[in-house]
Amino acid sequence: MVQHLTSIWRFRHFWLSLVRLDLRNRYRRSVLGIGWSLLNPIAMAAVWCIAFGQILGQGDWRSLAPTLLTGLAVWQFLTGSVLFGCDSFIRSEAYIRQCPLPYGIYPLRTTLGLFIHFVIALGAVVLAITVLQGNLQALAVLPLLIPAILLTTLFSWCLATLAAFANVFFHDTKHLTEVLVQLMFFLTPVMYTRDMLDRQNLGWIADVNPAAYFVDLFRISLIGGEGPSLQLYLQCGGLTLAAFGLACGTMAWLQKRIVFHL
After folding, report:
1. Would you say residue 110 lies in a domain?
2. Is 130 in contact with 136 (CB distance < 8 Å)?
3. What span, in angstroms and rounded, lies between the C-alpha atoms of 87 and 241?
């Protein structure tokens, strides 16, 4: 696996070029360009604040909006890595058949494209906190986000890798994943907070949901203005390590057979 990671780094110019190509093709001749990636979470947060904020009693919309935007940014990064990761090998079939490149490059291509949108979304959260609340604490805690961003990106890469292998051998994986993501959205504290679950004695839903830990990792830093606890870092690190081990094992087991199933 060390040799595989070393090979991925050696071909960094190749997969960086693929990421740039994906972004150019996606936003070619677009007026807003990459700014379109912010419209969906901002629109969802606005609708939730206006239509449901007062009904559910979640407080003033100025404090609610950054909370929702943070949850949506993390959620879309994680689920996007799985959904778009399903097609990582299929859309790169030409490269796989012609060039003996490390297979980890293709899910990484997907993850890095989503990573750019993720960073922009986090920037929108910082801007929302600064403008709506007149609070500069989000700027002060930005260095605390670096370990969280690295952990989340590595975890997303592992999810994209697992989804890519699964979809090649079982082509219904993407369709099943789309249904599962819709279900998990309502079971993950994205549009609500963990406190709401605890008040209903439903905190166990978040405890068994890996995405909830990563959402808390960013909310505590950006909304709470303090660094996450060591326990939360260990939990997210443990999930990332488990996903990394599973991705490595899957790659070692199936990479020699994948070309015959494309």
Report:
1. yes
2. yes
3. 24
Closest to 242 measured CA to CA, from 205, 200, 210, 215: 210
Tell me the average pLDDT across 154-165. Answer: 97
The count of domains in the chain is 1
pLDDT of residue 13: 93
Average pLDDT over the chain, rounded to whole?
86
Query: In the Cβ-directed half-sphere of 91, how many Cα atoms lie within 13 Å?
Result: 13
d(CA 90, CA 165): 10
pTM of the model: 0.90
Q: pLDDT tens-digit profile of 88-145?
A: 999 999 899 888 889 999 999 999 999 998 998 888 888 888 877 776 666 777 888 8
Residue 166 burial by Cβ neighbours in a 10 Å radius (0-12, 13-18, 19+): buried
DSSP string, 124-161: HHHHHHHHHH---HHHHTGGGHHHHHHHHHHHHHHHHH
41, part of any domain: no
Domain range for 243 is 50-260
Residue 80 placed within a domain: yes
Question: Which structure tokens are listed for 186?
Answer: 């309502």
Tell me the C-alpha distance between 189 and 71, whole Å.
7
